[in-house]
Amino acid sequence: MGTATVIDGKALAQKLRQEVQGQVARLRRDERMTPGLAVILVGDDPASGIYVRSKAQQTEEAGMRSFVHRLPADVREEVVLTLVRGLNRDDRVHGILVQLPLPDQIRTDVVLQAVDPAKDVDGFHVVNIGRLAAGIEGAMVPCTPSGCMQLIKSVRPQLTGQRALIVGRSNIVGKPMALLLLAENCTVIIAHSRTFDLPGECRQADILIAAVGKPRLIRGNWIKPGAVIIDVGINRVDDASDGDKKRLQGDVAFDEAVEVAGAITPVPGGVGPMTVACLLRNTLLAACRSRTIDPSDL
């Protein structure tokens, strides 16, 4: 093991879940209100099924109601939209999450934009994206970028003036991550598949977020000594010890990067647990906002 601090996403996520659980208990006691999270799962993708079961279990453990709606892979788009509209009207449901990816016959953007922005706990609706971009209070921040910020701040609380590089420009991680870092007064660069000299860009970054979906893309000699590395990548690769099995691999060559970086997240056990914990927090926030309750008062 090298000199880098390995950021324990599991421990930080557990702390956040405990905080949410305590606030939910007080909300139920003082306001007679139980936050509810509805998840829509279309098809039988094994990985998506595992994620949904985990989310449902953690939702219930936090004292919230969990509503899981499973639809067949060949379902028509209008059926999904009808379900979303019904959940928008359901007072028991404060957060709606559409598990991605959706089958080809369903337009993802149409479904996501049908979700009530106030219940959009994934932060994908254009209203929430616009609020985040404009710095307007009340934006629902996407869960993975929100979790990444907490991981960064756990080892580097003051970010003003830091040079931050995000490798990946997705709407889910890359773009909202850039907005959050800008709000912390970082100098932000987004790199992507057409970036010239990616290794050179990485070597200048004080904070590097890898979210491109390519295993071990970021090598140890690409990293600035002492940098904070947040690895969002979740890639299933063959297990060298057993060719019939798969294991998770990040976008960063961890064994190399840990020798150079100041702090780094592992895969698994880094960003993933924080993403789910932030989903629970967003559901709590949505419930509180539905009654104009300040969560800090709970």
Rg over CA atoms: 19 Å
Average pLDDT for all residues: 95
Instruction: Write down the secondary-structure element order.
Output: EHEHEHEHHHEHEHEEEEHEH
Measured as a percent range, the helix fraction is: 40-55%
Low-confidence residue ranges: none
Overall shape: globular
Quote the beta fraction.
15-25%
Q: What's the arrangement of strands in the largest beta sheet?
A: 1-11-8-7-5-6
SS elements, strand count: 11
Helical region count? Answer: 10
Largest sheet: 6 strands, parallel
Distance between the termini: 42 Å
Which structural class is indicated by helix and strand composition?
alpha/beta
Task: Describe the 3D structure.
The chain is of the alpha/beta class and 298 residues long. It is 41% helix and 18% strand. It has a six-stranded parallel β-sheet. It has a three-stranded parallel β-sheet with strand order 3-2-4, with helices on both faces. Strands 9-10 form a two-stranded antiparallel sheet. A hairpin with a 2-residue loop joins strand 9 and strand 10. The protein is globular. The termini are far apart.
